TrEMBL record:
Residues 29-128 form the NAA35-like N-terminal domain. This is Protein MAK10 homolog. One of its GO terms (cellular component) is NatC complex. Its main location: cytoplasm. InterPro entries: NAA35-like_N, Naa35_N, TPR_NAA35. Residues 608-633 are annotated as: Disordered. Keywords: Cytoplasm. Residues 342-807 form the NAA35-like TPR repeats domain. It comes from the Eukaryota. Belongs to the MAK10 family. It is found in: Cytoplasm.
């Protein structure tokens, strides 16, 4: 049997009968094995003659339907056969092609291959032969837009996974990099827009007005202007200087102006809708109706099978219909809204603020890969040949400076606060090595937060290993610095120095406490993301809430207490040391570490806990600062009050949940039976699986399952169900009080209406409101259970109000 495919003729031999006879000798379930054909080859083999797996079958049927031979026609061949036209396109035809190209762009951003999206348009394979100037410009712009996003954004960010985004494969498609530049496309679009505006004015002055052509021309102008603005906005992200190849400054104000214009254009654009009936009209005039008869000359402009033979055998070969233009423009409107929200990251000047924004943005906006890549590159712009940890924040601030400043804000270590002390070279090298090493996990943290939710959780578990190493390094650095600074402080002979302050400085591990604080933040977010992704079974809830409250949150509360105590106790002493040495040093900072991030201190002086008034030359300001200093010396300030209120609230909620779960289990009132503990081998296996990422940490120390059972027996098992119910009610009430106190403090401190997505640590205002409702409801349910109400009824959990804590259902 002969078959011709393209220019090649194949001679096929039919082995169906012989193959079927051999298969009859194999029992059901048995697979043929050979040295060159193992089980792996059998499982990965393609099923011939199946259109879903055998690409030749689908394309063969397609060729039969098209009735033009077993081959794909190129653009010159289509022009020769007069199946498409490349000159004198009407505005209606251009609008249809524009909306179709925009739909392919949307599908490509959604993760589909270039071979099945943009390059199914026959025009983009050979753009130079297109005579129609607007069509040629539009095709060039879409190709350059996708090339820029792929090359300068997606590949630079490196956030995509092979299984959920295949749009980076190029298949040797033309991108015209040598023939046309990005800025040329923008100028050509502007030229097209001007020419169409002239054409529109001439149409309006004609004696016989053609309203349909006027409307089509106006709609085409809106579309070309939209494409120009959107392409221009995209070029502003991760834009590199052509001479130095360094990241240029991100001008957020200019981007916001362009986004506002895009929003206005999207309101004016009427998505096209192709219909068979020429008399059909849009009921609310929201769509631009295009009769299919008016598109006869460009009917073959899109061929979904054009690149079918270039796809690999195991590729997803389903040909999807293009998305409706109305949906595409809605999607583009949401992209503009997300971009506007994303630009707020430029106002986040500390690592804590940036972390909270990244968590808030990924949780509430559900950004696509394109937006997540822009977020990462806006915060950490890429530089050629530069590692992630070596990138500068906003292209300006090195990570080492930012980490030092963040540590100064959190716990004021003497190494980063005493401005006029001289530090020996060995101590400088020790400190710089630590900060250089700290850049890697902190930069990886923000990279992890820009991945999709499931991948973020996986990367956070790996990140904890890096923070474990950093904990060891911080302990060694603290031990090295203790004797050095203790001796220096004693020599200062300060009036504010007492035995309590001296003991606190001697016992405090500044660097370790800071690293532990961030480690606990990651652990807390890691466990809560398990609830967001619905990973925990009901049998695991007790383990998770117990570990979350008694190990992680309990440790974090102590860290915040230590930081607050240090800030309130040692700041007066540190200020006095700086003032005492200021006159001797003649206002010249000798501490090299403070010199490195002195610009950050001056930019954020209002947030700096160390209030030094000696450098201010204005007498009025001196007086005010002296007043603040005196107040600081005499009273304690509630540092981290918002974070502490939230941590206490989570601690009370988690404690209430594991006490409540234990009481329900003792009374056998849970819907899942206690005998289900063996469905996943043993409880110990599940326990180790959930908390294994914490095993390598120095602090908080990992609790093995045997110790967990022992502490559980000491804490919960010795109480009766009624006592556990009462304790859970008290904890829910306490949690409600903490959360309400947080809301009140936040309202007073901000003195403005906040967005419900405003996030502190990893908890938003909407989360807190849900927690309060859950705590109130569970208090009522537990009081009913305590009174013996419906003692034979099973209790179930409802996570619809919030994923982190369930509502008890009778």
């Amino acid at each position: 049997m002969q078959e011709t495919i393209g220019d090649t003729t194949y001679n096929w031999t039919d082995v169906t009968t012989e193959f079927a006879d051999l298969c009859r000798n194999l029992p059901v379930g048995e697979v043929l094995r050979d040295e060159d054909f193992t089980l792996f080859e059998a499982m990965t083999a393609l099923e011939l003659m199946d259109p879903k797996m055998d690409g030749g079958m689908s394309i063969k049927n397609h060729f039969h339907e098209q009735k033009h031979g077993n081959r794909t026609l190129t653009l010159p061949q289509l022009i020769e056969k007069k199946l498409v036209k490349t000159s004198s396109l009407t505005p209606t035809e251009l609008i249809h092609l524009f909306d179709q190209l925009l739909s392919t762009f949307h599908m490509w951003l959604d993760g589909h291959s270039l071979a099945l999206t943009l390059y199914t348009c026959v025009y983009v394979h050979d753009i130079p032969i297109i005579e129609d100037y607007p069509l040629r410009t539009i095709c060039y712009t879409f190709v350059k837009l996708i090339d820029y996003i792929r090359e300068r954004i997606l590949l630079k960010a490196g956030l995509f996974e092979e299984e959920d985004f295949s749009g980076t494969l190029t298949y040797n498609f033309p991108f015209y990099r040598d023939t046309i530049k990005d800025q040329t496309c923008l100028s050509d679009l502007k030229k097209c827009e001007d020419e169409l505006n002239k054409r529109l004015r001439s149409l309006k002055h004609e004696s016989e007005l053609n309203q349909s052509e006027i409307n089509a021309t106006q709609q085409l102008i809106h579309r070309i202007r939209f494409l120009r603005l959107f392409f221009g906005v995209t070029l502003r992200f991760n834009e590199a200087n052509e001479k130095t190849n360094e990241q240029t400054y991100l001008n957020s104000e200019e981007i916001l102006r362009n986004l506002k214009q895009i929003d206005e254009l999207l309101l004016l654009i009427r998505p096209s809708h192709v219909v068979d009936d020429e008399t059909a009209t849009s009921p609310d005039n929201a769509e631009l109706i295009i009769p299919i008869s008016s598109l006869a000359d460009i009917a073959r402009s899109f061929d979904p099978y054009y690149n079918y033979r270039q796809l690999p055998p195991a590729f997803n070969r389903f040909i999807r219909q293009l998305i409706l233009p109305s949906c595409v423009y809605t999607f583009l409107g949401s992209i503009c809204q997300q971009l506007r929200r994303m630009l707020e990251v430029n106002d986040k000047r500390t690592l804590k603020q940036a972390f909270e924004f990244f968590v808030e943005y990924s949780t509430n906006e559900k950004p696509s890969l394109f937006i997540r890549s822009l977020l990462l590159l806006s915060y950490l712009p890429s530089v050629q040949g530069c590692l992630l940890s070596s990138r500068k924040i906003f292209g300006q601030i090195s990570f080492t400076e930012q980490v030092k400043y963040e540590m100064r804000l959190f716990i004021v270590p003497p190494l980063l606060t005493l401005k006029y002390i001289t530090i020996d070279q060995e101590t400088i090298n020790y400190g710089e090595n630590f900060f250089q090493r700290a850049c890697v996990p902190f930069s990886n943290l923000f990279y992890s937060l820009c991945n999709n939710r499931a991948r973020t959780r996986e990367k956070l578990s790996n990140l904890l290993d890096e923070f474990s190493v950093l904990q060891d390094e911080s302990e060694k650095l603290d031990q090295w610095l203790h004797k050095y600074f203790l001796q220096h402080i004693l020599q200062a002979n300060l009036s504010t120095l007492n035995a309590q302050t001296l003991l606190l400085i001697e016992k405090t591990s500044y660097f370790f406490q800071f690293i532990l604080h961030w480690t606990l933040l990651i652990m807390e977010y890691y466990l809560l993301m398990g609830f967001d992704l619905s990973l925990y079974s009901k049998r695991e809830l007790y383990d998770v809430y117990f570990y979350f409250a008694q190990i992680i949150l309990f440790t974090h509360i102590n860290v915040y207490k230590t930081s607050t105590n240090i800030l309130n106790t040692t700041i007066p002493m540190l200020i006095q040391i700086n003032q005492k040495h200021q006159q001797i040093s003649k206002n010249q900072t000798s501490n090299i570490f403070v010199q490195q991030f002195n610009s950050l201190i001056q930019q954020h002086s209002n947030d700096d806990p160390l209030m030094d008034s000696a450098n201010d030359s204005n007498p009025g300001q001196k007086k005010n600062k002296r007043k603040n200093l005196n107040g600081l010396l005499s009273t304690n300030t509630d540092h981290h009050e918002q974070e502490v209120a939230l941590i206490h609230g989570h601690f009370a909620m988690s404690t209430a949940m594991h006490r409540c779960l234990k009481a329900l289990e003792l009374e056998r009132r849970l819907r899942f039976s206690s005998t289900d503990a063996n469905y996943f081998l043993r409880d110990e296996i599940r326990y180790r699986h959930r908390f294994l990422p914490f095993a390598n940490l120095c602090a908080p120390p990992y609790m093995p399952h045997a110790d967990f059972l022992h502490i559980q027996n000491l804490s919960d098992n010795r109480y009766t169900p009624k006592e556990l119910y009462q304790d859970a009610i008290n904890n829910f009430s306490q949690a409600k009080t903490y959360f309400e106190s947080y809301l009140n403090r936040l309202t007073i401190s901000k003195q403005q209406t906040l967005n419900r997505t405003f996030t502190t640590s990893f908890t938003s205002l909407a989360d807190v409101e849900s927690y309060i409702r859950i705590a109130k409801t569970n208090c009522v349910v537990l009081k009913l259970l305590l009174s013996g109400h419906k003692s034979d009824m099973k209790i179930d959990f409802d996570f619809t109000l919030h994923a982190h804590y369930p509502t008890l259902k009778l």
